[in-house]
Amino acid sequence: MYSGxxxxxxxxxxxxxxxxxxxxxxxxxxxxxxxxxxxxLMALTGNALLILLIHREPCLHTPMYFFISQLSLIDLxxxxxTVPKMLLDQVTGDxxxxxxxxxxxxxxxxxxxxxxxxLLSAMAYDRYAAICRPLHYxxxxxxxxxHLFMSGCWFLGMLDGLLLTAMTMSLPFCQFRKIVNFFxxxxxxxxxxxxxxxxxEMVMYLCCILMxxxxxxxxxxxxxxxxxxxxxxNSAEGRRKAFATCSSHMVVVLLFFGASIYTNMLPRSxxxxxxxxxxxxxxxxxxxxxxxxIYSLRNKDVTGALRNLMLSGMRPRKF
Length: 319
Hints:
Elements: H1 4-15, E1 16-19, H2 29-56, H3 63-80, H4 83-92, E2 96-98, H5 99-132, H6 137-140, H7 143-169, E3 178-179, H8 186-190, H9 198-232, H10 236-264, H11 273-296, H12 300-314
Parallel strand pairs: 1-3
Antiparallel strand pairs: 1-2
Helix pairs in contact: 2-3, 2-11, 3-5, 3-11, 5-7, 5-9, 5-10, 7-9, 9-10, 10-11
């Protein structure tokens, strides 16, 4: 017979999932969680500041900076979907998450990740149009086209999130519900199912191919054409300027797509749950911190806008 405590624990485990913290198995957990909190604040500050600068400065009201502001918005929401819950669990000592809460978190991060994937493709096309089709650029990338691109990004991201979340959360889960991750990620939940998940894995793999390979082909094609044009430019200064306009975006693409392919497309036998958690931490925490710096440190327009903002804040107000 089971005792009352055991019965209560079983009922709780059948209703809730238990999240394994990012640093719970290390001796320096307090320091590492404090560092994560600092990185979280840096991501919030950096992305919010970039959005403010792009919205405030008329010289930044171009398609390229419109897409960068949308990327910052997605990164802002992305890190807020996972990190606050993890930090709160560390403070309260309660690392459980309800079935509904797990589904909401999964839908949020899948939607945002999907939207970012297609946004990076749109940004690559924008750079192709600006560099390879400069005379037609105002027609190819006008305000209406930019908003259509973003509407498509959000629609496809939500479609992916809704499909995979509904399929994952409808699976029967075993009594032991410890998720080897710091948030409800689909591959980690898949390992807890008591049913045959072969069909689900095939559908998920197909979705990943459509969500990753199609944008990768689009991005690769855009940059092949861009690099070919850069190579044909006779002026070294012209080549440098042309490459500088797309080098930051290429770095972001490599970081995000590399981590996504590792987590979602490699067979499970090639990586462990702990490795998945490390890679997940990279693209949910590190990438949102790095993106504002990647797009601002080497960008004279953004640094100039920041300088103007600081100078305007230092000017005495007239009463």
